[in-house]
């Protein structure tokens, strides 16, 4: 690729902006590197009306070798036919327009690898368009599709498919050996109630997103997605998880917030690669063992019905953030020393009355949120080691927290100066010796004992 010279760029900038557009198209087609000028080019192109293309048949024809065509954000309701001859295009960007359908001549663009169509008004795609054997990315989110076109399943090179924010209520049957290279699948915000029973055959899938759908259960075969790293299932109607979910050994993120889960399978603690687990706003009353989650860094358990935490919670050595607010916890595990990485702890709106002294020994703890709990004291030195402490709505909130003041008063240890000089001669310090002399005099008077 040749660099576009500064001199040539100055000439382009001084020209009519419409001519600039065509000159840049030619430059791309001829192998010039436009990356250093992309930002300024993007600023220019927004002022160029698309009808200009239709008047420049020869100019467009001269760009027949162009590989990337960006027509995003042009308020297009259709594509100019003059573009039909650009059959070498590999990346087609039509985002944020008003397209309701695609022209038939696009079916002849056999080199297409990436097509961006999000934020249009497309309600259907032709089977011929979906016959592109080289297509690797298809972005169709925020359209008006009512069904997933069955022809999509025949795209053997497809790696990324996003159909989020449509009106798809069911999925066509997934046949054997279909979508063999798919690594990313998103169907968020569709009224889908069931995932493919044989979804496990998508052996290269790394990210699966079904958020804000109507799922009530997951197929057992989902546990065979051994390459899966990210599973997004927020805001569905799931009541339980497959018993063998622990087989997802590559899983790093599991998003299950806002479901109806009452319990979790015992195999959960076999997810040794899991870094983020989000279970907020479910109906969990207890948790299985967690010790096997050796990589866990972020844990969301807020707004469940938990009354206690498993003892091995305190052995999550890589945990950085724990969100436990809005449960029925009346205590935390006494020994928390192993939570060496913990930085943020949320326990708001729990009936907790006492914090374990071991919180002071957590070297990285910076923020403690304990508002609307029942705690009456803080472990000594805890307040001074934190960057942020929230105790609003607690018995401590009306005044300065007393960090075990009573215990401190009865466990006074003399300072080095006191050891050398003796006890201080404060008024309180003189009261006990004076009282002793008076008592001795009274006893002497009673028994007639001469003391001096």
Automatic annotation (TrEMBL):
The keyword Zinc does not apply. It comes from Saprospira grandis DSM 2844. Keywords: Leucine-rich repeat, Membrane, Repeat, Transmembrane, Transmembrane helix. The keyword Protein biosynthesis does not apply. PANTHER family: PTHR48051, RAS SUPPRESSOR PROTEIN 1 (PTHR48051:SF1). InterPro entries: Leu-rich_rpt, Leu-rich_rpt_typical-subtyp, LRR_dom_sf, LRR_domain-containing. Residues 393-427 are annotated as: Disordered. Pfam families: LRR_1 (PF00560), LRR_8 (PF13855). This is Leucine-rich repeat (LRR) protein. GO terms for cellular component: cytoplasm. The chain crosses the membrane at residues 431-451.
């Amino acid at each position: 690729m040749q660099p576009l010279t500064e001199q040539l760029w100055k000439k382009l900038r001084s020209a009519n902006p419409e001519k600039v557009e065509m000159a840049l198209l030619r430059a791309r087609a001829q192998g010039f590197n436009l990356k250093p000028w992309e930002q300024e080019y993007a600023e220019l192109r927004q002022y160029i009306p698309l009808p200009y293309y239709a008047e420049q048949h020869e100019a467009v024809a001269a760009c027949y070798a162009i590989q990337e065509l960006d027509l995003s954000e042009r308020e297009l309701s259709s594509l100019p036919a003059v573009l039909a001859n650009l059959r070498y295009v590999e990346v087609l960007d039509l985002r944020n327009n008003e397209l309701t359908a695609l022209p038939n001549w696009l079916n002849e663009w056999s080199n297409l690898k990436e097509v961006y169509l999000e934020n249009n008004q497309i309600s259907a795609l032709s089977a011929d368009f979906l016959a592109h054997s080289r297509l690797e990315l298809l972005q169709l989110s925020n359209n008006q599709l009512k069904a997933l076109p069955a022809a999509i399943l025949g795209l053997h090179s497809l790696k990324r498919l996003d159909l989020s924010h449509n009106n798809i209520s069911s999925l066509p049957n997934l046949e054997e050996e279909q979508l063999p290279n798919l690594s990313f699948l998103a169907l968020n915000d569709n009224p889908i109630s069931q995932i493919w029973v044989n979804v496990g055959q998508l052996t290269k899938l790394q990210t699966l997103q079904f958020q804000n759908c109507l799922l009530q259960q997951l197929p057992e075969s989902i546990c065979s997605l051994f390459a899966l790293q990210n599973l997004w299932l927020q805001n569905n109607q799931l009541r339980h998880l497959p018993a063998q979910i622990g087989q997802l050994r590559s899983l790093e993120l599991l998003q299950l917030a806002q479901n109806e889960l009452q319990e979790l399978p015992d195999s959960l603690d076999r997810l040794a690669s899991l870094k983020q687990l989000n279970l907020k706003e479910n109906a969990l009353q207890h948790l299985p063992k967690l010790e096997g989650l050796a990589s866990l860094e972020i844990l969301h358990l807020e707004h469940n019905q938990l009354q206690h935490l498993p003892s091995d919670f305190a052995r999550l050595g890589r945990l950085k953030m724990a969100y436990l607010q809005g449960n029925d916890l009346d205590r935390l595990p006494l020994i928390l020393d192993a939570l060496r990485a913990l930085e943020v702890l949320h326990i708001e709106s729990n009936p907790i009355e006492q914090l374990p002294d071991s919180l002071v020994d957590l070297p990285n703890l910076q923020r403690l949120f304990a508002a609307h709990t029942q705690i009456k004291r803080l472990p000594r030195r805890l307040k001074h080691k934190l960057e942020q402490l929230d105790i609003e709505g607690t018995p401590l909130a009306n005044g300065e927290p007393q960090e075990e003041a009573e215990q401190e008063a009865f466990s006074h240890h003399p300072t080095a100066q006191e050891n050398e000089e003796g006890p201080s001669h404060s008024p309180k310090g003189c009261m006990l010796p004076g009282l002793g002399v008076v008592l001795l005099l009274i006893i002497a008077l009673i028994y007639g004992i001469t003391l001096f």
